Amino acid sequence: MDRVIAKKKWSRKRILTIAGIAAVAILIAGSIYFTSGKSRLNVEADRLTISEVKQGVFQENIPVNGMVLPLTSIYLDAQEGGRVEEKYVEDGAVMKKGDPILRLSNTDLMMTMVTQQSTVFNTLTQMQINRNAAQQNTVGKLNSMADVESQLTEAKRLYSLNKKLYDQKAIGLQEFKKSENEYNYYSEKSNLTKRILQADSLSTKQQLVQDRQSYDAAQNALSLMQKKVGDLIVRAPVDGQLTSLDAEIGQSKNKGERLGQLDVVGGFKVRVDIDEHYLSETAE
Prior knowledge:
about 280 residues; alpha+beta; 4-stranded antiparallel sheet; 3 helices
């Protein structure tokens, strides 16, 4: 005879399923509990900093690597090209303003200066020659003027005398006209001589002005060449320490080529590379 077997309500499979669901529920509940701000952490009191909350600019500090540089650096470039003939100091020397650093040589520049010196000398010589000639010409014109004035005075005296004699019928018309013509001639000659002397004086002044301008121009050109030659000796523009000196004896340097730099002692700056993410938030 068949027997009814009662079905078990809590099978092994069912128990494991319920246990799994319960474990998941406990994990979720624990996660919610520990992230709800109710967790605790023990921290030593001396490690805490308590500050007053204020409204202001938010500051954020980031660590970066930088390079310490002089506050001011002056580059030394060759004002004129040439060959390095002499070095007065070495890299790292402390310089005073005007101290020589090195000397260059430039044959073409020296020849140009000598030529300009000759030009100045020739211009000065020609100016002196023109001045002497103008003075001699003026003296000659003044002598001629004196002769004409003397002749005019005599002609005037004779004309006045003959006019009286002619009025008195003591001399004839021909003799009177002769004295009158001589007086008129020397009078015109005197006026002409005065105009010539005045024109020569003006011309002489203009010539002297032109000579002076030519001499000044030549002298200025010579001064410029002398400065260029003087620039062959490279000097310290300010007080500082010489660094990065790049020049050796016998080496040729072009005009404008970098010779080194002079660091002004008295302050420093730090140069760092900052990520572009922080550029908008960076302040001095």
